[in-house]
Amino acid sequence: MIANDNIKISVKSLYKDFGKTNVLNGISLDVYEGEVVCIIGPSGGGKSTFLRCLNCLEDPTSGNIYFDGVDIADVTVDINIHRQKIGMVFQQFNLFPHKTVLENIMLAPVDRKLLDKETARVRALELLKRVGIEEKANDYPHSLSGGQQQRVAIARALAMNPDIMLFDEPTSALDPEMVGEVLAVMKELAQQGMTMVIVTHEMGFARDVADRVLLIADGVIAEEGTPKEIFDNPQNKRTQDFLAAVL
Description:
Blueprint: E1 7-18, E2 21-32, E3 36-40, H1 47-54, E4 62-67, E5 70-71, H2 79-83, E6 86-89, H3 101-111, H4 117-130, H5 146-158, E7 164-168, H6 176-191, E8 195-199, H7 203-209, E9 212-217, E10 220-225, H8 227-232, H9 237-246
Parallel strand pairs: 3-8, 3-9, 6-7, 7-8
Antiparallel strand pairs: 1-2, 1-4, 4-5, 9-10
């Protein structure tokens, strides 16, 4: 556990239904500033839905999501103001194909009038260097490998200077040889103190980087603990069965 009491996100009794299908069944969770939380579990268990609820890409059916003390699940709250501080990286890269790498990264800060074009350009170049592909600034997404495109997507999310980063299985669409380069960028972010919530199938990464690991199955947190507790001595049979299948 991170040694501070500054809670960045506090989730209280979160439920999400799609029609008659119950996907999330009362999840509660606090994420602390500087903490890296990795979420593992079987497909269809609610992991990605939970992550998408954290920045209200999915509206919860009920429950509260406090971000820096404001309940962003409240429909009267302007979610766009708060979403600027919550970066998200998806399975698919979602880059604009008709814009260069540099333009993709500059777009949101300029469009939201957070930075002027020249400042955004300098910031974008710094971020490209940070993710190790500054030489691709003027290239278009189609000419990049999957790993490079995902690193651009990470840089684009960082361009908004977020307080927290959400990652939804960011390596699942990549060829195996490209996974490591993306995980290396994420590991560096963790070492620099970025608050992160990561849905991942990369068990070795979760073991190495997470402060806390959650197993979500059947819409609930079946088990949570340190990586050592979860991977070396899981208590819940659901966790034991899942890890036996993937390790």
